Amino acid sequence: MPPKHSTSAAVHPGKAFRGKGKKTTDPLPLADRLKRLYISLVAQVDGGHWKGAERTCEKILRLDPNDSDAKQTKLFIHLQREEYNKALELIDNKDQPQSSENAKLFEKAYALYRMKREKDALAILDEIKGRGSETEEEERGVMHLEAQLNYRLGNYQLAYDVYLQLLDSSDPSSEEHHDIQTNLDAAQTYLDFINSGYVEAMNASVSARDIENIPPPTLPSTSLATATAGPSTHKGPAVVEEKKKVRAKRVPKGVIPGVTPPPDPERWIKKSQRTTRPGKKSKVRDARSTGATQGFTTEPPPAPIVGNIGGAGAAKGRKKK
After folding, report:
1. What are the domain boundaries of the chain?
2. Among 52, 149, 271, 295, whose CB has the most other CB atoms within 10 angstroms?
3. What is the DSSP letter of 66?
């Protein structure tokens, strides 16, 4: 018996092989991939996108775990983001490659300076100076950090001396020279105040004996105090009390304070129960309001007519013609 042919394969001839023939592309060489990542890293650092730059550094380190530039950049990113504990962990890592031991100590001292641990940072700087600096740039960096630490600790004279040495050996047209001059002026200001300004201020102040002889200050008199004390004998213009201004937001629209008459106090009562009702007066209500009964009058009754009875009867019996 011949085998049955599948109708689905006849209708869709390529359906049975769909997904099995994927195209495979050769991955980029390691050098090209690192080059692309470094291009992105430079743009992120220049733009201040520290979170994305840190992720890019991690990608580079996954490709090349011994890349010193990526580790230095990652340390710089931690310092910029004020993640000093992570920076110290990265510095103390034994796998961290360093150009020299002094560079590692200097980075640790700078991280401690940013964490406001000045004494620990000064101890590390003393260790660096005991080892000896390898380059002039490294020596100047140590001096800058030492001056900043002494200034923060209040050792203004030591900071002034270090800044003076840096100023003498710097280029007058450089930005470093301007920064050193600013810090030197700040240290000089504090020294002047401690050495002379504070003493002059104390000498110019009032002594204890003068303070005892100074009379106590008098309280300023107010219009309320003078009114309660009694009539004043001072001849002068009378003090006019200011009227309290009415708040504009509490005045209804179209009402002028002091000009518009006040509203009817009985406006909330029914008209039939009000004492005064506007409009026409009712005659019946006016009659009832007098309190008199029907037919009552105050005039005397008319007197009876006395005359001729016959005449009266004759007059009565006449007919009209």
Report:
1. 29-97, 99-204
2. 149
3. T
